[in-house]
Design a protein that fits this description.
With 104 residues, the chain is an all-alpha fold. It has one domain. It is built from five helices and no strands. Helix 3 crosses helix 4. The longest helix is centred in the first third of the chain and has 19 residues. The protein is extended.
């Protein structure tokens, strides 16, 4: 196996374990089992920004990025599990609280 494949598998394994640790594998596993959703966003952003050779400043770059994200928003698929925002917001806080209690 080549290095890139091994690194990708390691990263994916860590992310999958994080979803399990947070108790969100059922809600988010389908959407985040692969990096396709992130790669799709990066490709769509690249189509809108790759031809710009020089940015005047950071603010201009942020403006272009925000505009491109708004433009591609309608083409993106919804994350499976996004209908549970309270549970999704609470999971990291609950996990952190449990980790801090174990340390103390």
């Amino acid at each position: 196996m080549n290095q890139s494949t091994v690194a990708s598998l390691d990263q994916g394994l860590e992310q999958t374990l994080t979803l399990h640790r947070l108790g969100l594998a059922k809600e988010l596993g389908r959407s985040f089992r692969t990096t396709n959703c992130i790669e799709n966003v990066n490709a769509l952003l690249g189509q809108r920004t790759d031809k710009v050779d020089q940015w005047r400043n950071s603010e201009q770059k942020q403006h272009w990025l925000a505009t491109a994200l708004l433009d591609i928003e309608l083409r993106l698929r919804r994350v499976a599990g996004c209908k549970h925002p309270v549970r999704l917001r609470a999971a990291p806080q609950t996990h952190l609280k449990g980790s801090l209690e174990q340390v103390a």
